[in-house]
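To the team - pyridoxal-5'-phosphate complex, inputs and output below.
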Amino acid sequence: MGTALFLLDGGMRSFAKSIELYDRTRRHLAGGVSSNVRYASTPVPLFFARGEGARLHDVDGNVHIDYVLGNGPVILGHAPRLVIEAVAASLGEGQLFAAQHPRETELAERLCRLLPSAEVVRFATSGTEAVLMAMRLARAFTGRTKIVKFEGHYHGWSDQAYISARPPLNEAGPADAPVPVAGSPGMPASVLEDVVVAGWNDLDLLAKAFDRNKGETAAVIMEPVMVNGGAIPPLPGYLHGVRDLCHTHGALFICDEVITGFRVGLGGAQARFGISADLSVYAKAVAAGFPLAMVAGRRDVMDTLLDKGVMHGGTYNGNVQSMAAALAALDVLEAGGGAVYRAMEARGKQLMEGLAALGARHRLPMLVQGLPTIFQTFFTRDAPPKNYRESAACDRDMALAFHSALQEEGVRVNQQAKWFLSAAHDEPVIAETLAAADRAMAKLA
Ligand SMILES: Cc1ncc(COP(=O)(O)O)c(C=O)c1O
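Output:
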C-alpha cells in the first residue's frame, strides 16, 4: 500500500508500521477494522501499542496527545491506575455467572443516587443495545409505535436507530419535515415507517412533528447536547420545551446521554441543564473505558420489564469487571465533591479559548463550540451552527486538513475535529497542545 510517509507540507511522521499492519489485517479482518467509525483515519486506520494518561503511542513510535479518547469513554485518561487496580483485583473472582453479583447492587444504588432521572437502572453492554431497550420500553409503556428522533443525532448503528444520523442533504427533504434516511445498505425500508425525523433545537418543528403523528408517538429521543452532529448545546429552554411537548402529547422523553453522561458533569447533561428525562441511556464514560451501558429512568416505566414482561437480555450484562471498573471510576469522579470535573472544566475552557485566540491570530474562519469536556472546531464564516443542517454546511475540507495538520504535530482529534477531554489532560498537556495547534494553524493559514 502506497507511501510509508504521511506528508503534509513537509511533515515527517512515519506511519509505515501502521500501513503494513493494516495491509496484513484487512486480509482476515473485514475492512481491517472492528468498527466502521475507525476507517476515518489517515493515512490508514492507525495501530496503537499503548495508551498512558493523555497520550497514545502508535506502533511506529509516534506519540499522540489524544483527544479522541476512545470516542468518549476514556474520561480518566488511558490506563487510569485506580480503575486498572480494581479490575485487576476482580479478575480472579470470575467474569460471568449468568446470575447476579453484589457489585451490581452497589453500582445500581450509587447510580440512582447520582443521576437526576434514575429511580431504577438496568445494565447493558453497549450504547446501541441500551438505546434499543429504551425505545422498546417506551413503546411497551405507551402502547404506541412511533419514535421521534432528530437529524444529526446518532443513537447507535441498529436498524431502528441508525436513521438520519448524518443524512446527505440532497436526500433529507425539507428542513421543516425531514425525510427519514436509512444510514446503511441492508436496513429494511419498513423501519423508516416507525421513525419520525425532526430538525433539532426548534420547538415549532417538534410541535409540527407531533401534530403530523397525533396519538402515535411513543417517545422523543435526543442527545441533549448534539455531540455527534457537531457538539452543539441546546438553546436556552429547548430541553424543557421538548419535555413539556412530550408530556402534552402523552409521549416519553428519552435522553441519550451515552456521550454526555459522566462527561459534562457527574449528573450528565440533565444535571447541567436542570432537567429530568423519563428514560435516559448512559454508556462510555461511566466505566472509564470498560464496556458498560445502561438505561435509567422512572420506576413505573422501568417496571414494565417485569410487569409486562418486556424482554431485555445480554450475556455480558453486569459482568464483574465492568462493575468493578465503574465503581472505581465513580470513586475518582465523586472525590472531593467533583474536583475532577472542576479541573476538567477549567482546562477545557482554557483549551477552547486558546484555540479560538489562535484561530483569530492566524485569520482562520474558525469557531470553537461545545462544552469544555467535549467541543468541536468548525470552519465557517456563518453564525455558530444550531442544528445538523447548519453544522453540515461548515467547511468539511478545512476540518479534515486541520485534523491532518494536528496529527502531524502530535495531536489526535477525530476527523470532524472534535475534542474530548480527560482528567489526565493537565496544564502542561494543554500548553503543549496549544503550541502544536499554533504550528498546525500556521500550515493551514
Ligand atoms: C449518543 C450516542 N448514542 C449511542 C451510541 C452507541 O453506543 P455504542 O457505540 O456503545 O453502541 C453512541 C456511540 O457513539 C453515541 O454517541
